[in-house]
C-alpha cells in the first residue's frame, strides 16, 4: 500500500531546465514514445531527471510496503479466530512481497536494494506518513485494511498506467493482491460495524483517530508547478493529489455512512453542483511534522526495521559468495 | 524507549538500536529472474525476480514469492546476469518495413483462385 | 478408541497451532524479504493444518467450535510439546526448530497415509506437498548455514544443542500411545524414522547431535512452560473480549 502523492519535495531543487543537459533529439524521441502510450524499459535511454524521480518514487513506495507491514503486524499474534488470524498473516506477508517486487523494479534503474534500505534506515528516504500512527485496537486493523488499502488502490491503479515498464508490471500484481486486502478489510470492518455495541464503539473510535491520517494520505492540495507538469507529461505522476482524494471520498465515504458510522468532519459533504467533495482542511503542519520524524511511531518503525536488518546480517553474510559479486547483480526487468 | 503496542516488538528489546547501521553491497546476494508456468503444457512466463545466494535458494524463494497465490505448476530461475537482450536502439531491426506478405496467410488468395476456377464472380 | 484418536488429533493440532503462531511472529521481521515471505507461508500452512485438525475434532462426538476450542481452553488442556511453546528467540533457533519439527511432521503424516482412520488419511494426502516444501526449505538452510563459515556454524550448533532435547519431546509417549496401532505406528517408531531423516542432513551441515539428552516431556499430559500461558493470553486477547460475538 502506498500514498503520499509526491509530497517529499527536496528543499532546494534547481529548476528542471537547469539540471537536464539531455540530448534534445533523444529527449524528443523519449517524450514522443511516452505520448504514444509506449512503456520505457530498463535499458532504454531516459533523461537523468526521469530516472532520479522514478527511483525516488518506487523506492518510497517499496519502503512504505515494508514499514506498512508493522502497524498491522501489531495485531498479528492477537487476531481473533482462525480466519482473521490467517488472513492477517497473509496480508502482512503480501506487504513484504510488494516491497520485494518494488525494490526489484527500482533496482532496474541502477540503485541497489542495499543502498535503498540504507537510505530508509538513515532517514534519508521517506515512506508513507500514514504508517507512523499506532494501531491501538483490533478495530484499527480493520480500518487500515479497508480504508488505507482502498486509498492505496486509488493511488496504485493510477500509477499502474504510468510510463515505466517494470513499475507498471509490479503494480499490476500488487493491485490484484490489494483488491483481496480491501475485500478482507471491508469484511472485518463490517463485522465490527454490525456487531455488538462494544464492537461498534471500538470501530467508531478507530475511525475517528484514523480520519486525519487518511485525509493526509494523498498529500497536500495541488499547486500548479512546472515540476509537477513535467512529471505528468512523463507519466511518472498520473493524477493530482486532490483528484485522487476526491475519488477516494466519492467511493468510500458512502460505504462508511451506510453502516451508520460517522466521520469526524462536520463539513464533509459532496457538493451536488460541482460533484466534488468538500471537507475541512486537515492539519498540514502536523503532516509535515510527522514527515520530519516527529510522528507518534516514526522512531519505533525505523528501529524495528533496523533490528531486522541487524539481526539478519550474519545470515545474509554466511551465504554471500564473494566471487559472484563481480558480476552484474541487478534484475534486468 | 516506551513500550510498543506490538507485543512482538516488546520481545525484540530495541534498547540498543540507536547506533547507525548500514548494510553492505552484496548482502542481498544477486538477482535471479523467475519464470512461471501456470499449467502443464503452457510456456514459462517471466514474472519478476528474487535475490538469492545460489540457484537452489532462488527456486525455494521463488516458490513462495511467485507461486503462492496464482496457479503454478513449475518455475524456472536464471541468473539475471545471464540474460542477453537487444537494446532499444536495435528496435529498427525488428521493424517489418519491406513487403513480406509471403510470410502471412493473408498473402495467399486461395478462395479467389478456386472461385475463378469454378467460374463464380 | 475414539478417545485415543482425539488425544492424537488434539496434540497434532495444538503442536501445529502453537508453532504456526510462533513462526508467524517473524512475518515482517525476517532476515531478508524473500525468506520473510517463505517463512510466513509455512507458518500459515501450520495454522491451516491445525484448523483442519480442529474441524476433524469438531466432527467427532462432543466436538466443539474450532475457534472456541483453539483460542479459549485453559493451558492445562493443551497437548502441545514444549518445543512449540518456546519464544521465537534468534533466527537460528527458529530455523532449527522448524527443521526438527517439520521432519517430525513429515514422518507422522507419511505414516498416516496408511491410517485406518479415514479423516487423518485424507488430511495426510492433502498436506503432503506442503510438508515437502517445508523440509526442502529447512534442509537447504540448515546445510548452507552449517557450512557458512565459523560464526554461522557455531550458531547453528548451539541452536541444535538447545532444540534437540525439546524436539525429543515431540515423541513423548502419550495417553494415545499403544492403543492405536491401526491408526499410526506410535511415537517410538516415528522417532526412529525421524532420526533416520534428520541425521544425513545434519551430517551434510557438519553439525553434531548432542549426546545424552533429557527429552522435554510433559506437554502431552498438559504440563507446560510459562511461555505457553503467556502465548495463550496474548492469542486470545481480542477474542476473549466477547467470545460470543462474531469477529
TrEMBL record, chain C:
One matching Pfam family: PaaA_PaaC
This protein's name: Phenylacetate-CoA oxygenase subunit PaaI
GO biological process: phenylacetate catabolic process
Gene3D superfamilies, alphabetized: 1.20.1260.10
GO cellular component, one term: cytosol
